Amino acid sequence: MNQDAIWDKLIETFRDVFDEPELVVRSETTAKDVLDWDSLTHIQLLVALEQAFDVRFNTGEVAGLADVGAMIDLIDAKLK
Amino acid sequence: MQALKALIKSEDYELAWQRLMTLADSVGDYPSLTGLCRLRKKLGKISQRPGLRRVVRLAVLGGASTELLEGPLQLFIESQGLDAIVQCSEYNTFVQEILDPASDTVSFKPDVALLMTTAANIPRWPGLGDDLDGVNRTAVDVSDYWLDLCERLHKQTNCEVILDNFHAIPTRPLGNLAVKTPSEPNNFLARVNLRLGENAPAYVHVNDVAQLACQYGVRNWFDARFWFHAKQPVSFSCLIPYVRNTARMIGALLGCAAKCLVLDLDNTLWGGVVGDDGVEGIRIGDGDAVGEAFKAFQEYVLNLKQRGVMLAVCSKNDEVHALGPFQELSDMVLKRDDFVAFVANWEPKPDNIAAIAAQLNIGLNAIVFVDDNPAEREHVRQRLPEVRVVELSDDPADYPRILDDAGYFEVMSISAEDQARTRQYQQNAARVRLQESAGDYQDYLKSLDQRAVIRPFEKNHLERITQLINKSNQFNLTTLRLSRSQVEAMMTDEDYVTVCVRLADRFGDNGLISVVAGKQVDNVLHIELWLMSCRVLKRNVEMLLLNHLVDISSRRGVANIQGIYRPTPKNGLVKRLYPTLGFQEAGDMPDGAKKYSLKLDGFSPLSPPIMVVDEY
């Protein structure tokens, strides 16, 4: 899967989880920038991403994903 | 889900609520569930759910994070025909919440409290070298610790308590030797669970998380990552079974459990179409894999019947074809006599199901419908949204598990009445036939040879009395629901007059069928509770009861009996009961209930065709 396809799927997952059909996220987007992105939705988001990409985040990664760019990089690395 | 979004967009809120509840009842994956919870929130902001329902106040306490459960619990409770207010307390604050009389939980005044626990909350583990007696003593101590917390909570708030038991730990440092080592953690947890089940008082309902985790696999049930990260007690993939199971217990506590299973025949109870394939051509019984799968399903259904679920048939068939397998095939586990209603015709199924409900005198939400045909299921869902429709797979080997997972028949106790229910309904059918031949109704009642035993509440009937109080909807003047301990309190309170009636007739014993309780204040008896099982409607039991009430009341120096009719969507049947019995209207209450009053002075006893006996 190339970076563009990962981005598309990731944005789709974000929109789904936050129920915001127009939501836009960028590499530098963090939890502070998105309404309702608290520790609970963070977990829901990770579970949704795991399902969408068929990957598994380990315990350290669950806590460490600070911005969307880090998520993209991690997913990209796991898919390779 | 798309259809639901469209309904919300087009502002058809009534249908949207209905659709939401139907979807919630069958949702199977976590992403869809979170989607439904979001839509529930959205819908709740822009419209009020139509209709009148009972509200249940649920407090969730946990040795784990409970926040993520709030939305799903609310939705699953609501989908059973209730309204729910759910309050979750902070992680691991359950001891403070229970002991502090000013805590959020206590001041919330819950009807039901859910105490979520995990093995991390076990206060004390046995030492590796402890012998069997020592380990068992520790198991008793640990289970007592939990039951003691439940008791304190119950005493503070009078709520019913749902207590999780403990699922196994997914690792076993001792390997297979664990089986022979009582102090090994999983060996020990099994002992604690046994004690909880054995020693839980009536107000504690043990949530069998151990069994659920076993069904789904402990390693799927518990996701260590999310435990370390956010103290999630149940993995996301198993959240639905946990919440659904818990919500069913709450529904059962509030009298929402289903009572009757309506079954299709072709490809539901046997393989093939009997009208086309003939009795010899259908697949049921040993020697054929598909036939064995259907037989296993029939065995599961028979187990339900034996614990008190009524069975009915609703099949598109000529009756003669539908009856064939029951009469001719010894491999059929279910017999014609196992069913309280048998409808085989070509009318639309929703009409037939509504007729079955009317015949049995039960609400549509007390019916579970099982049919292999998705079109029939959808037809029933649309026409009768209250009926619980089971979403079968296309494989009969799955049927028992699917029906079992749905949990519609959850009960908090099983009384002798439950086990005898099918027989009682069949006797009822015989009574109806007699009535049709007897002509005049009073003659018919006389011909029934009715005998009644009238007693105050007694300990050995508490279970049945509580059950009747929480299940009766139609003949129920106040629809006041009470826990077993509240009923027990009435029984021992000198100010209360309590009455229950058992009724027998020439066709058999109807069991304990009517309950009345009233509180005497000075010279007035205030009836707080008057209800009767619908099995014995129009048998003049209410006349007998009034005679009895007047009799005890006058001996207690009562001058006036005061009754209340509090209307609900289901109790229109008894709207005129008090005036019919000679009570005078005595004004309205703020909540819309009507008061009635009867002067004892000048009351002339009624003469129902029922003989009062000490024992029949």
What is the structure about, briefly put?
Chain A is mainly alpha-helical. In chain A, 61% of the residues lie in helices and 0% in strands.
Q: How far apart are the termini of chain A?
A: 9 Å
Biggest chain contact: A-B, 15 and 16 residues
Uncertain segments of chain A are none
The CATH homologous superfamily name of the largest domain in chain B equals SGNH hydrolase
CATH fold title of the largest domain in chain B:
Rossmann fold
Describe the main β-sheet of chain A briefly: none
Largest sheet of chain B: 8 strands, mixed
Quote the average pLDDT of chain A: 88
Which stretches of chain B are low in confidence, meaning pLDDT under 50 for 5 or more residues running?
none
Determine the CATH topology of chain A.
Answer: Non-ribosomal Peptide Synthetase Peptidyl Carrier Protein, Chain A
Q: Look at the structure and give the mean pLDDT of chain B.
A: 92
Walk me through this protein's architecture.
The complex is a heterodimer of chains A (80) and B (616). Chain A is mainly alpha-helical and 80 residues long. Chain A has helices spanning 3-18, 39-53, 59-64, 68-79. Chain A has four helices and no strands. In chain A, helix 1 (3-18) crosses helix 2. Chain A is globular, with a radius of gyration of 11 Å. Chain B has 616 residues and is of the alpha/beta class. Chain B is 43% helix and 18% strand. An eight-stranded mixed beta sheet of chain B has the order 16-17-15-14-13-12-11-18, sandwiched between helices. In chain B, helix 2 runs antiparallel to helix 3 (30-46) and helix 4 crosses helix 12. The chains are: A mainly alpha (80), B alpha/beta (616).
